[in-house]
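User: Fold this; tokens only.

Assistant: Input:
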Amino acid sequence: MKHQLDFEKPIFELQRKLDELRNHPEKHAMVINFEEEIAQIEKKLAETSREVYSNLTAWQRVQLARHPKRPFTLDYVAHTFSDFSEIHGDRLFSDDRAMVGGFAKLGDHRVMVIGTQKGRDTKENIKRNFGSAHPEGYRKALRLMRLANNFGLPIITLIDTAGAYPGIGAEERHIAEAIAVNLREMMLLEVPLISVVIGEGGSGGALGIGVTDRILILENAYYSVISPEGCAAILWKDRNAAAKAAAALRITASDLLELGIADEVIPEPLGGAHNDSAAMAATLKACLLKHLDALNAIAVGDRMRQRYAKFRALGRFEEPKAAA
């Protein structure tokens, strides 16, 4: 059975009725016009789906970004890229399975692809630490980025994490320093860099692989300094105020595009990326190729200056008006 979110109940109820008609036509043949009834429900289903998914709140988009069936980094690596060869370890401590990366091809381009990876079930989530990388994950990512820079390969990062792992071990191995070094070093890389928020983009855990020339975001993904629940707990002293916090934070793709943080919103299939992962992978590939071609046309020095200026310009401030 498909995972059902609260706001999707009208859609799933119509789908259930449609499936019942199709699977057991003998129960309804004597009392209704079978074909006409199916056509009416299909029309209503299409209308309801468009209405629901065209008017999603910020919190509902957060729920879609966390959908357990949503494509993860390795799903896109398998279907958007080709010839992937994974590289393991940070050469300092261990191999963090929450951060994956390696050589790949995007169309005719040889690239380095890096991303945070969640798990589908309990066993895999433990292996992947629920997509929250340790310091060694960010150091592995930096090792791969430096390797790509040495070979002149563009770097593409796929972001899907609630945040970097906040545990004692991570603090002992200097998680903040690892992320900070990545922020500095990514600004100095000479090759083109593109990041894509494919699901959750949480705090420094996302930013640690997100200092790039282009920041793209899927339609139902979000990018935020804090989770809605965390914000609600701090400002409203109640994690149940997450929906209010999500709206106040302005973390959705359309908000980020308006604020100048995201460079493009990548449309998803109706109902979310998980409803047609093959189409989503194809759309992502086309978008990445477009931006990669544009970045390759810019001289290295100019591209680096534009990257620096992009991040220096982020943020909006309002000065209080002087008293009359």
